Amino acid sequence: MIRVVLTDIEGTTSSISFVHDVLFPYASEHLPGFIRARYQDNPAVAGQLDAVAEKSGVARDDVDGLIEVLQGWIREDRKETALKALQGMVWEQGYQQGELKAHIYADAAEYLQRWHDRGLRLFVYSSGSVKAQKLIFGFTTEGDFTPFFSGYFDTGIGGKKEADSYRNILSELGVEAGTVLFLSDVEAELEAAEQAGMQTAWLVREGDLPETGRFVARDFAEVDTLLQKR
Ligand SMILES: CSCCC(=O)C(=O)COP(=O)(O)O
Ligand SMILES: [Mg+2]
Questions:
Q1: Residue 12 CA, ligand 2 centroid: distance in Å
Q2: What is the reaction catalyzed (predicted)?
Q3: What is the per-residue pLDDT across 99-153, written as a single tens digit (0 to 9) for each?
Q4: Separation of 61 CA from ligand 2 center, angstroms?
Q5: Which of 68, 96, 124 is the last residue before a domain boundary?
Q6: Which ligand is in closest contact with the Cα of 127?
Q7: What residues make up the domain containing 30?
Q8: What pTM, to 2 d.p., does this model score?
Q9: Which of 9, 114, 159, 204 has the highest Cβ tally under 10 A?
Q10: 139/160 Cα distance (integer angstroms)
Q11: 180's torsion region: left (phi>0), alpha (psi -120 to 50) or beta?
């Protein structure tokens, strides 16, 4: 019996194009000014720059060099925890100033509410920082969805393609692996979750459906058919 739904964001609850064509360019444009204004006296920003310097080998006092590294990581869609933390801080300003409104698929909006009301516990696992996750669900075009979620996990718990990350989530949740349904559009993430014993549904929102033994869904209404069965 599935009691917990753990969901990815990009390509699952929100479109890939919102993340790549709106959020990433916004971060790329605003990160330089954001960092230059804070790198000396904001401990949260300084701490993330320490991590960028360590990972990249660029000198810690070379702020322009660190900004260049971050811009490159955005272009490459690198899931670096420090980048994700800084992006979350920049997006917070954008959402609060009304410059950003998040996309959520209509079916995701409908079924997140239904599943919550039905007593399922809902959690998020995304490469975006927990702050960014709360923002994307808090400032959608359809309203605030954060009341439906019981918790959030980011790459602080481990990478999304590693089975140990899902084991860590299970031990945080204190539930049996088989009672958790993980939703994602990325097959390697589903494989890792399955290795940890979770059930999975593969969201394929566009294009041909893959030939696979996995449960595949076009949208959350189809995921719901699986939830009603198990
Ligand atoms: C949390 S909103 C921004 C999403 C993001 O930065 C990202 O890299 C997408 O990762 P996901 O694990 O949701 O595919
Ligand atoms: Mg995804």
A1: 6
A2: 5-methylsulfanyl-2,3-dioxopentyl phosphate + H2O = 1,2-dihydroxy-5-(methylsulfanyl)pent-1-en-3-one + phosphate
A3: 999 999 999 999 999 999 999 999 999 999 999 999 999 999 999 999 999 999 9
A4: 34
A5: 96
A6: 1
A7: 19-96
A8: 0.95
A9: 9
A10: 24
A11: beta
